[in-house]
Design brief:
CATH superfamily of the largest domain: NADH Oxidase
CATH topology of the largest domain: NADH Oxidase
Helix content: 25-40%
Largest sheet: 7 strands, antiparallel
Oligomer: single chain
Bound molecules: flavin mononucleotide
Radius of gyration: 30 Å
CATH architecture of the largest domain: 3-Layer(aba) Sandwich
Number of strands: 23
Length: about 475
């Protein structure tokens, strides 16, 4: 059966005609195709794609009009090219009202039409989700290269039913307000775009039997596909979308309290010649979860923070303040803040502190409150239920907007990469200093923001690291 959908160009594609040379230009934001001395039937078919009011068989009829017919096979090659460029949308229409439109995201794409079998049950993928974008409901899935605009309540109602396996006939019975052919078209559109799958005889859909897909959680796969290129059409990379609209955050966070503890500075040039050789540090590095009886002291904590987190230099640019530190960071942006939570440290009383990387000092934020104690106990449990909590828990928080002001699609992905980079820097410095390091893979960001009275969306914890004297 021929595809029943209306086929149209994406809204961002425009046509420019010049009658003198009988020329037609198709222009997308990324590409331009020029047809010289274009056949009138081909021009009409392409214009119809721009208007979006024809099915495939209607387009073929246009090509066959008049004396001089346009070769259908040649048109198919163009259609395939447009499809490959990700230019073609497919719509289901009911009673002349658009019900759903499938829009490809990105190029290198083929709309391989699959028709449902009326007797078989179909079910929605657990990866499919709908959300509101610019006043429209959109159905998306990290399994699909296509997004579907849900343009009427009817399409949303059908999606709702498909949470459980349904045959075409069962759906038609439950929603008689939608014509049976429309239900069939809509189901075929969902099948073609990988939003639904056929339910297998054992009652599962293919993604539930595929061992690789089974191990992807919804949020992990969505985050992966949305923060990498290939399966979405969102702007990507350093786009500076807030330039001129919102001021970027300062490169260095202003002091968080007046209760300041100045830290000593190690002699870096001396360390550069006397320190443990690099290969020994790399080879000796281990995660240690037990601590010595004599705790870490203020001088050691100061040296550790100086060698891992201090600012060496700041630089004002037209696009905000950047800095240079020991560890690398995308764009020199450095969104991570260090909050040492001191349990036992000679010379520094227990409590929560913020490290100022420019002045190399701690700002005291609170004592060992109940929330601070809970954070410490969580860390102990996360470190394999260790007998004692870390002597110092270094909590990493991110001023997320520093990254999001510049980067699009990749901001959170970058942030997590930075946490990894900084973890390794802390591991290496702690090993060189003969201290006990251990990275943590989980923490409670709500509890952290509560402990500090921070706004979760402005600054939130993204990593934790246990530190102490070696046993
Ligand atoms: C990102 C990351 C998260 C980790 N999370 C934890 C954790 O939650 N609890 C823990 O005890 N160790 C954690 N570790 C330490 C690993 O268990 C440890 O690196 C691994 O077992 C290899 O041992 P090694 O570090 O001694 O070479 C983590 C390490 C990394 C890099």
């Amino acid at each position: 059966m021929s595809q029943p959908f209306l086929i149209s160009f994406k809204p961002e594609i425009s046509l420019q005609e010049s009658s003198e040379e009988n020329q037609l230009v198709i222009q997308s934001p990324e590409r331009k195709l020029t047809f010289k001395k274009i056949h009138p039937n081909l021009k009409n078919a392409i214009s119809s794609l721009a208007e979006g009011n024809s099915t495939l068989s209607q387009l073929l009829d246009i090509l066959q009009q008049g004396e001089e017919k346009y070769p259908i096979l040649k048109f198919y090659t163009y259609l395939q090219k447009f499809s490959h460029l990700g230019w073609l949308c497919h719509s289901v229409v009911e009673s002349q009202q658009p019900m759903a439109m499938a829009i490809p995201m990105g190029g290198n794409f083929q709309f391989s039409y699959q028709e449902i079998t009326p007797e078989l049950p179909y079910s929605l993928s657990r990866f499919a989700y709908s959300h509101q974008v610019g006043g429209k409901m959109v159905l998306e899935s990290p399994l699909s290269q296509t997004k579907i605009l849900l343009l009427s309540w009817k399409s949303s109602a059908l999606i709702n039913l498909l949470a459980k396996p349904q045959t075409w006939g069962e759906i038609v019975q439950q929603i008689p307000a939608i014509a049976p052919e429309t239900v069939q078209q809509f189901l075929s559109l969902l099948l073609t775009t990988k939003m639904v799958s056929e339910v297998l005889p054992e009652g599962k859909i293919q993604e539930e039997t595929n061992m690789n897909l089974m191990q992807w959680e919804f949020h992990d796969l969505l985050f992966h596909t949305r923060s990498r290129q290939g399966r979405h059409d969102a702007p990507y990379g350093g786009t500076y979308r807030f330039l001129g609209k919102i001021d970027p955050l300062p490169g260095v966070k202003p002091p968080m309290s007046e209760e300041v503890i100045k830290l000593e500075q190690p002699d870096i040039s001396n360390l550069a010649t006397t320190d443990v050789p690099f290969t020994q540090v790399l080879e000796r590095r281990k995660s240690l979860r037990e601590y010595g009886e004599t705790p870490i002291n203020k001088q050691q904590l100061g040296e550790f923070l100086y060698r891992t987190g201090r600012i060496k230099k700041t630089r004002q640019t037209e696009r905000g303040e950047l800095s240079e530190r020991v560890y690398p960071s995308g764009g020199g942006i450095y969104e991570l803040e260090l909050y040492p939570l001191v349990h036992l440290c000679e010379g520094i009383s227990a409590g929560l502190y913020h490290y100022c990387p420019q002045k190399h000092q701690l700002c005291r934020l609170s004592g060992a409150t109940a929330t601070v104690t809970t954070l410490l106990n969580h860390a102990r449990i996360t470190m394999g239920n260790a007998s004692n909590p870390p002597q110092v828990l270094i909590i990493l928080a991110a001023r997320f907007q520093r990254l999001a002001w510049k980067y699009q699609s990749i901001a959170y992905g970058l942030l997590l990469k930075h946490v990894g980079v900084f973890y390794q820097t802390m591991y290496l410095v702690a090993t060189a200093m003969d201290l006990a390091p251990c990275a943590l893979g989980a923490g409670d960001s709500d509890l952290f923001t509560q402990a500090l009275g921070l706004d979760y969306y402005t600054e939130t914890s993204v990593g934790e690291f246990g530190l102490g004297s070696k046993k």
